[in-house]
Each structure stands twice: as structure tokens, then as C-alpha cells.
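Obj.: predict assembly geometry.
Materials: sequence records (below).
Method: joint structure prediction, all chains together.
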Amino acid sequence: MTAAPAPATPDSGSQQPILEARGISKYFGAVTALRGVDFKLYRGEVLGVVGDNGAGKSTLMKILSGLYVPSEGQLLFEGRPIRFHSPREARDLGIEMVYQDLALAENLNIAENIFLGREPRRGRSMGPLSLVDHRGGREQARRHLESLRIRVKSVDQKVGELSGGQRQAVAIARATAFQAKVVIMDEPTAALAVKEVGKVLDLIKGLKHQGIGVVLISHRMDDIFYVCDRVVALFHGANFAEARLAETSRGQVIGWIMGTKESAGELAYDRVQ
Amino acid sequence: MTASNDTATPAAEERPDWRHRLIPILDRYGILLVILLMCLVLYALQPEVFLTWRNVANVFKQTAVNSLLAIGMFLAILTAGIDLSVGSVLALGMMTLAVANAAGWPWPIVLLLGPVVGLAAGFVNGIGITKLRMPHPFIMTLGMLFMARGLANLISGGVPYTGLPDPVRFLGSAQIYLGDWGAERLNLPVALIVTVTVYLVFGVFLEHTVLGRRIYAIGGNPQAARVSGINVDRVLIVVYSLCGLMAGCAGLIQAGRTNSGFPNAGIGAELEAIAAVIIGGASFFGGRGTVLGVFGGVIVMGLISNGLNLNNVSVFWQQILIGFIIVFAVFLDVVRREVSTRK
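Observations (raw C-alpha cells):
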């Protein structure tokens, strides 16, 4: 694999974030999951989000993707304040989430999974009884997969017959099928075979080059340091540290996950392999 | 960007072996093969009787009720659910229309009462499953099984009502005379037309409409459907309402066939419907199965009882055989899943 071209990361001063969160807090009963978290994502940027289990990563992502409503704080999309009541509203704006468990229907084929909930229709519109345009959907799916350089035998294949990496690719294809501007991915490589990880990471780089802002939650330092432009660490539900990738190191990031600003390079689990 | 020419799939060199190509075909049409085999065997055993129009029409007449119950049950099973109440809802629909008729209501209303009562019972099932957050459709529909049966007895005082006007009986008992073929009179049972029409409509609905595909999606992965913006609760309410509607229609057909309403109608019918759906290849885990398969399952059950009747085999053997076939059909499903999904 050749090295990716220099990251087209905008400098934070001159450009407006595509998605921004200001002072987000989230309470579940007596439990505080997030405390005044700030977050910025720019166009064409891959942002790594790290933190220990329970640090609040997933809660933050679910707020950004409309699954949860924040208890306090404000979300801005392209500079405009927004408020989501469901994932559908976020999707309508172009904010897509790729779930850790992939959220695919294994009994349906690749094309149908890509258009799940947004089926291409033909003929007269009759609400839920509208006819599905199977042929058009297949064709669109094929072209979309091609544009992402994802190769499958056929878009008619059932997702249940695919390998983990192929499923991940289908999930990403679904997230990007409708002019996505932001794609949030929760541990996209956690369940993959080693040889498939690189392909998914390259896919993420491809999204970035299309100008999509990508948020990547990962525990794997290899992933973070291969694709990300910037990394943000959460600790105990609050912002802990943040840096351009070029200005930090694995040891430092691992330290952040453990809640220390000193380098923890010697403890790096990913070096022990 | 040169890095990622073969992104994310181990490309297409691996050819599907014969099993992977055969399975989808067998999935779809295997049941027809089974039916053909059964017909050959039955024809060999009773060549004078089995393939007569009269006998074939008889098979269809006798399976009409089960075929309507089974198609509704199929919807519920597609969503990984079940509807145990269809037999009781059949009886409730049947009793309601018979009692209304005895009370002197005009026949168009009497005719509509069966399906409408079924629809209402199904709607209540759907509301209970989704809004009351029952842990499994089994619970809600088990409750409805008792409630509908009790209601059917309550409104009739537990006794049968006989005698219905012809228009009400039409769908269940009328025959259309097509002409003669040799010595035989070709009479087409209207119930068969009803069944075939219903199955065609459901076939188009499930394969080609947005809602139909979403029913499959919910059966495959309800969580995926939910996060994709599909209103899962609403779809489930529609599914159970349709299942109830079909049970009500089955009640109308049954009333027409027997020219009466009796509160013990349809006892155990839900199990026969489930059996037909399972024999037809639908998966109990949801999301898998076809309308054609369900139709095949209904016909297989009809042929078993017809064939054994023609050969004077005790009805008890029918039960044993059907039980055996259910287990065998599910075993086939288990094997197929192991072969067709990668681990």
C-alpha cells in the first residue's frame, strides 16, 4: 500500500466545522454520561475518537447521529443550530452512522440493505404500498459500490453470505449512498479479520477524499494512526485531550485513554503482538 | 489515490460451488417438486379417483380455510413472531356474522362482519405487542386466543347458529360451472378463486412493495430496520391486523361452507396454519420464506389428508405423518442454513 497523499486537513481557524457540538451534557437518571463536551468535525477530515470503555464515546456519537437527545448543550450543522428527534432527521441532513453491530438484514441482498428505509420507488406513489424499483435499485447500488471501489460478486448476494469485511463495506456503502456529509463509525474494524482491516481503512480514506467528514471510534492505535488527521480523547465523560495526528504519538494517545497526559508508550498493548 | 484498488472484498475469484447455486433454486421451487412427487404417488395408488376434477377441486375446497389462515400466519412468522389466536378469531368472526344474521341484519353487513371483526382482533394484537411491550407476540396472541374464543361463546350462548343467506355463503360454497369434460362436470369452487387471488395479492405485496420488503427487513434484523428509519411498531401493527383480517375471512369461508356458525370452529387451526407455513419453508427465525412456499405447504397438508382418506388410512395416521413432516421440514431448514451461511 502506498502512503496516502498529504491529508487535506483544514486549519481550524479558517474553516467552519461541518458538525459541531458545544457544551454537550447527557444524563441518564443519576448517571452523568457526558459533561460539557465540545466537538468539531471538518469537511474531508477523519477524526479519531478514543477513550476507555465508559468514557462517553458511544453516547456522544449517538447524540451526533440523532439517536439520543442531549440533556444540555447545542449541536450545529454547517454553522446552523440543529436539534434531532430521531436518526431519520440526522440522516436527512446527511449525517450517517455505521453501527458496531452493522445493522444489516442478513436475509436481504446487498442492494436492498444499501437502500433499507429509503427504497427506490417506481410508478405512482402509494405510500407504503408503492412499488419498489428493484432493477433501478440494483443498478444504483452497483454504481455506488463501484464509486467506492467495493467489489462484490453481485449486488443480489444475500448479506448473510458475506464475510465480515464485505459486510462492513456494505454498511459503509449504505451510510454513503445518499450524499452523506458526515459518517460516524463505531469500531469498524473490531470484528474483522486482519487482512480485511486494511481494506476498510482504505475505504475510509476514500470517503475523506470525497470531502466527507468521518468520525472514527477505535481502540486500535494502528487504525487511528493510519487514517486519522486528528484525534480527540474523552475521559470520564469529558474532553481530555486533542491533537493533530502529526503532533502526537501512540504512547501519548494511549496515555490519554488511561487518563494521563504523560506518555504511556511502554504499556502500549498494541506493541505486544 | 492509488492505494485502494481492491477495497474491502476478497475479490470474485472464488466461484460459488454447486451447493450455493442449487440452494436458492431449491428454496424457491423445492416445494413444487415435493407436491409433484406426492401427486405421482397418489395417482399410482388411486388412478381412477385421484386426478379427477372432483377430487382435485375437493382438495382445494378443503384447504381454503387453512390457506387463508396460513398466509396471515406467514406474515407474523416473517417478522419472527407468531399469531396463536387465528383459530379463535376465525370462530369469533364466524359467530359474529351468524348471530348478526339471526338478529335480522342485512346480508351485506353480515358478510362484512367476519373480516371486520378479524381485522379488529388483529389490530388489538398489534397494539398489545407493540404499545404494551409484550415480551413476545406469543403472549399477546395467546391472550387473544382465549379472549376471542370466550367472546365467540358469549355472543352465541355457546350454541351453533345454522342457516345463512346465499350471498353470505357465496365465497365459501359456490361453484362456477365451466362446462363438461368427458363425463365430468367442471365446477370451479369460488373458494379456490378467493385463495388464489389472495395469494397473488400477497405475493406482489411482499415481493414488490415498500411495506412488504420492510416486513422482510424487520424479520431479518429489527434493530437494523429501526436505525434505518423504519417505524417497526407501525409495520408490526399492520402485520397482525392483516393476519387477523385473514382469520376473519377464513371465518366467512368456513361459515359459507358449513352454512352455519359454531363456537368451536377452528380449534387447533392455528397449529395447522403454523404447520403449513413451516412445511412451506419459512424460517421460524423470521425473514425467510415465500408466498409460493406457503401455498405449497398448504397443498402438501391437503394432499396428505386427501391421499390418506382416499386410501382409507386412519385420520390418526394423518396426524403422525404431518408431525413427522414438520420436523423433517425444519431439519431441512437447519441443514440449509448451515450450508448456505458462512461462519
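Conclusions so far: Chain B touches chain A through 41 residues (CB under 8 Å).
To do: check interface contacts against the pulldown list.
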